[in-house]
Amino acid sequence: MSAGLRMLTRSRSRSPRTRPRGGGEEPASIPRREVAAEGRKKHRPGKCQQKTQRLHVAYEALDGEKDEGAEPLKVSAWEPQGWQQQLANIRTMRSKKDAPVDQLGAEHCYDPSAPPKVRRYQVLLSLMLSSQTKDQVTAGAMQRLRARGLTVDSILQTDDSTLGELIYPVGFWRSKVKFIKQTSAILQQHYDGDIPASVAELVALPGVGPKMAHLAMAVAWGTISGIAVDTHVHRIANRLRWTQRPTKSPEATRAALEEWLPRELWSEINGLLVGFGQQTCLPVHPRCQACLNQALCPTAQGL
């Protein structure tokens, strides 16, 4: 048996003459006379031999090791019933790309003529402003900021009162003034005015959550690090039963989606579902009558 296998079922007894497989001390030696006497007892005429019990032994390969002789353990992967058709229907309903997110999302809020470092900073700032804020309001705030020259240095040189006036009326604008100033100072001191290139470093910045971090990685760095889940994606995934069990937070929804959704769809799913949530699958009074998934949606069936 390969050293990289772990025995899951042990036999009930071991012969005293068997050597340990992994090394260690030799078993205590038994005098030959006792062995011979024991043999005569076991093979004495008229005595029935005890039937040997056969055990089925399964082995599991340790991480990073393979064994061709071991039968691989089969793991059943869960996926939602009919999700491919539901996704195809959402793509059809979103084919016009005319939702607010399609024109005013993070991909459209930065200055394309700015240096790469500045563009990435503007992407991150737009994501920080977008939390609990409609895309139209975020886009307006970004336009006002860009008109003054939106860079790390310009933000740090702007007093809090003026910055508040520029970003108002984004949600929680007072807190965002503080977070933007703190994050900008960190970027200047530790990243030479650029933004971090990892999710772990991004979420460590004040006012930056997991959704923003994954979107920043995708838009600013061109790297798909995970599914960006906001309130729209969280709501729709639960309505369609795209999670094995109901989830109570966007982060729990992200983890549940990433367990089964093919990775090649991760970059598409945020924009697709956000626009769908803005136009059809509304938070209150969803437009189920106009939805192609009405007959496939478990929530619509219960309305």
Index terms:
303 residues, mainly alpha, two-stranded antiparallel ribbon, 46% helix, 2% strand, elongated, disordered N terminus
Structure, described:
This protein is mainly α and 303 residues long. The protein has helices at residues 32-42, 83-93, 100-104, 116-130, 135-147, 152-156, 160-167, 173-190, 199-203, 210-221, 231-239, 250-258, 266-279, 298-301; strands at residues 5-7, 59-61. The chain has a two-stranded antiparallel ribbon with strand order 1-2. It is elongated. It starts with a strand and ends with a helix. The model is unreliable at 1-48 and 55-66 (pLDDT under 50).
Break the fold down into its secondary structure elements and pairings.
Elements: E1 5-7, H1 32-42, E2 59-61, H2 83-93, H3 100-104, H4 116-130, H5 135-147, H6 152-156, H7 160-167, H8 173-190, H9 199-203, H10 210-221, H11 231-239, H12 250-258, H13 266-279, H14 298-301
Antiparallel strand pairs: 1-2
Helix pairs in contact: 4-5, 4-10, 7-8, 11-12, 11-13
How many beta-strand runs? Answer: 2
* Main sheet characteristics: 2 strands, antiparallel
Order of helices and strands: EHEHHHHHHHHHHHHH
- Overall mean pLDDT: 84
Give the end-to-end Cα distance, rounded to a whole number of Å.
Answer: 58 Å
Overall structural class, as computed from helix and strand content, comes to: mainly alpha
The rough form would be described as elongated
| Helix fraction by DSSP (H/I, runs of at least 4) | 40-55%
Q: For the CA atoms, what is the radius of gyration?
A: 31 Å
Strand order of the largest sheet: 1-2
Approximate strand percentage? under 5%
Unreliably modeled segments: 1-48, 55-66
The number of helical elements comes to 14
